[in-house]
């Protein structure tokens, strides 16, 4: 089993599943759990089909060097996207993600539409659960396929299975926690997870893109640790600089506007 693929898929998937679970919870409480579960199961089936088809295609038809380059570039872009959000939140320039606020906002929107609890299957409830799980799950699928496939031909299938296991474990953990508390998972440190996973994705992406271009890294696979340390140092430095920049802006109110959520727009 490839533990790097499993652990990264687990952490990344946990963030996405928490966001999806919030919407599924709203549908279950506001309309009924039957509609919520049906939409969730349909989305899971769709995502499983995507992993099965794309995963097999990558294993059988794509040359390893080309795959590593493409996967590396995609991971860098994906990781930088998560790092950007985490850095802005840590620096105070972007409001922290609030699952409880999302829960209350979604519930209010559904009530405004006239949605209410009903015993039968509700098409809107099914569609809302399906969309939430599918959209968040597509990012999980991206992690599973890319992390699982950027290895030697013989180990690509094992890598995809390992990443899929990590994602499944994260999903089960989030569902179990949600069932126990029956409330938005507000205690999950989402921004910390995004920061960690962003560092991991960017580091692995840089390493694999380099391998795809023929770079021979010092210390082989162990150089990933050095890349992670470098990106961590750069991210922390940027957070400190942005915090200092924000303090300067607060003394010059004309230079910045504050939104109702506490975000600062430069």
UniProtKB/TrEMBL annotation:
Transmembrane annotation, as ranges: 6-31, 38-60, 66-83, 133-154, 160-181, 193-210, 222-242
Protein name as annotated: GDT1 family protein
Domain of life, per lineage: Bacteria
Keyword terms: Membrane, Transmembrane, Transmembrane helix
Upper classification of the organism: Bacteria, Bacillati, Chloroflexota, Ktedonobacteria, Ktedonobacterales
Signal peptide: none
């Amino acid at each position: 089993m490839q533990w790097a693929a499993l652990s990264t898929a687990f952490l990344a998937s946990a963030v996405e599943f928490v966001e999806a679970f919030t919407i599924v919870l709203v549908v279950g409480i506001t309309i009924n759990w039957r509609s919520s579960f049906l939409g969730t199961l349909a989305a899971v089936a769709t995502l499983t089909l995507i992993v099965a088809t794309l995963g097999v295609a990558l294993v059988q038809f794509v040359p390893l060097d080309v795959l590593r380059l493409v996967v590396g570039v995609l991971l860098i872009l994906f990781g930088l996207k998560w790092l950007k959000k985490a850095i802005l939140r840590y620096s105070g320039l972007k409001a922290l993600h609030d699952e409880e606020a999302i829960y209350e906002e979604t519930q209010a929107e559904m009530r405004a539409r006239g949605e209410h609890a009903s015993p039968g299957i509700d098409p809107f409830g099914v569609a809302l659960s399906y969309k939430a799980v599918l959209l968040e799950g597509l990012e999980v699928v991206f992690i599973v396929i890319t992390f699982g496939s950027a290895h030697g031909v013989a180990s690509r299938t094992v890598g995809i299975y390992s990443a899929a296991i990590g994602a499944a474990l994260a999903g089960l953990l989030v569902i179990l926690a949600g069932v126990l508390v029956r409330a938005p998972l507000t205690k999950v440190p989402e921004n910390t997870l995004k920061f960690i996973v962003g560092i991991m994705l960017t580091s692995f992406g840089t390493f694999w893109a380099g391998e795809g271009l023929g770079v021979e890294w010092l210390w082989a696979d162990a150089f990933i640790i050095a890349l992670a340390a470098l990106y961590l140092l750069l991210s922390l430095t940027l957070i400190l600089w942005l915090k200092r920049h924000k303090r300067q802006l607060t003394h010059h109110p004309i230079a910045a506007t504050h939104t109702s959520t506490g975000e600062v727009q430069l």
